[in-house]
TrEMBL record:
PANTHER family: BLR5498 PROTEIN (PTHR30137:SF8), LUCIFERASE-LIKE MONOOXYGENASE (PTHR30137). Residues 1-317 form the Luciferase-like domain. Gene3D superfamilies: Luciferase-like domain. GO terms for molecular function: monooxygenase activity; oxidoreductase activity, acting on paired donors, with incorporation or reduction of molecular oxygen. Keywords: Monooxygenase, Oxidoreductase. The keyword Oxidoreductase applies. Signal peptide: none annotated. Pfam families: Bac_luciferase. The keyword Cell cycle does not apply. GO terms for cellular component: cytosol. It comes from Streptomyces mutabilis. This is Luciferase.
């Protein structure tokens, strides 16, 4: 397994000023570089405490690039539907150059009705906009005199400057939370995969991974060359009970944030998002203890988290990469730093010792 950290703020001005949150997050980036973590990622969301402090991942990652030399920098994920492909391709290419070729470019469809309404984009167009946007971005990174004559964008011939450092382009990930078909399509297209185990059962996720890996291999790509990233909230403390107390508080606040963000699904329906109207009810029944028991959270003393990770490896394979959600903003900087140090020093080096 490889390990990195992912920032998904779920705080607003009443909880913590944005300036303070970003100062703490960038200090944790420094620590990730020092401790040898593989990557740093950040999300894209708007308006709500649920991710709203991060409307532009590239801005944060550019700051992270300037204070690191090794750690990879990932969007988790940025939304093609909300930006022109020339703009997004150019921003990510600049970041790849500034960082010396360390960008992992993850793209997502988005799923919050309020965000689509603000951008004036119908929910029903999200999948088609995603496919068209990602295809255009990849071509802009790798080809000269690109002409796009799509449903949503028409331009060209244009040749993007600067080109990414990585050839033919940065690794492309598809971020999917619930859709089995999105996993299959990612495999067929040769895209790497990011997902959140918290939103589905172990059996559902195993099925999606089998489908993804089968489609990857069927498309002529070598099995095992795909990258699969999972994100887990993570709180580690030398005292397991203290870790659970902090983790419960953090999970409760995170659950309240997503409950507010998905409220519009109570009155919204879209064929592009079948079943999403159930999110409102599902967020009312999000229980810390059951999520911990189902290995949807990484919380406890070092030896407990080590056992949780070994179970995850048995379920999904030990070739996956884990993104640790260490700082949603509700716990202190010191709590996040402790989690990272204990993971790097007492958890990761000892994985598999008991087998």
């Amino acid at each position: 397994m490889k390990f990195g950290i992912v920032f998904f703020p779920t705080v607003g001005p009443a909880d913590k000023p944005a300036q303070q949150y970003f100062d703490e997050a960038l200090r944790l980036v420094d620590l990730a570089e020092e401790l040898g973590f593989e990557h740093v990622k950040i999300v894209e969301h708007y308006f709500f405490a649920y991710g709203g402090y991060s409307p532009d991942p590239v801005t944060f990652l550019a700051a992270a690039a300037g204070r690191t030399r090794r750690v990879r920098l990932g969007t988790s994920a940025t939304i093609p539907a909300f930006q022109h492909p020339v703009k997004l391709a150019g921003k990510l290419a600049m970041l790849d150059n500034i960082s010396g070729g360390r960008v992992d470019a993850a793209f997502g469809r988005a799923f919050l009705p309020d965000e689509f309404e603000a951008f004036g984009i119908p929910l029903d167009e999200s999948k088609d906009r995603f496919v068209e946007g990602v295809d255009a971005i990849k071509r802009l990174w790798a080809e000269d005199d690109v002409v796009v004559d799509g449903r949503f964008h028409r331009f060209g011939p244009v040749t993007l400057l600067p080109r990414p450092v990585q050839e033919p382009h940065p690794p492309v990930f598809v971020t999917t939370a619930r859709s089995a078909e999105s996993c299959a399509e990612a495999g067929r297209a040769g895209h790497n995969l990011q997902t959140v185990p918290n939103v589905m059962s172990t059996e559902e996720l195993q099925s999606r991974l089998r489908t993804y890996r089968a489609e990857w291999a069927a498309s002529g790509r070598a099995p095992g060359t795909e990258q699969i990233h999972f994100s887990y909230p993570c709180v580690v403390d030398a005292d397991g009970e203290q870790a659970r107390t902090k983790g419960r508080y953090d999970d409760d606040r995170n659950s309240a944030a997503i409950r507010e963000a998905v409220a519009a699904w109570g009155t919204t329906r879209s064929d592009a998002y079948p079943g999403y109207e159930k999110l409102v009810e599902a967020t009312k029944h999000s229980h810390f203890d059951s999520k911990l028991a189902q290995r949807k959270l990484l919380i406890g003393a070092p030896e407990q988290v080590r056992g949780q990770l070994e179970q995850i490896a048995e379920w999904f394979g030990d070739d996956i990469t884990i993104s640790l959600g260490v700082h949603s903003g509700h716990l202190s900087f010191e709590d996040a730093a402790t989690t990272m140090r204990l993971m790097a020093e007492q958890v990761i080096p000892k994985l598999g010792e008991g087998r």
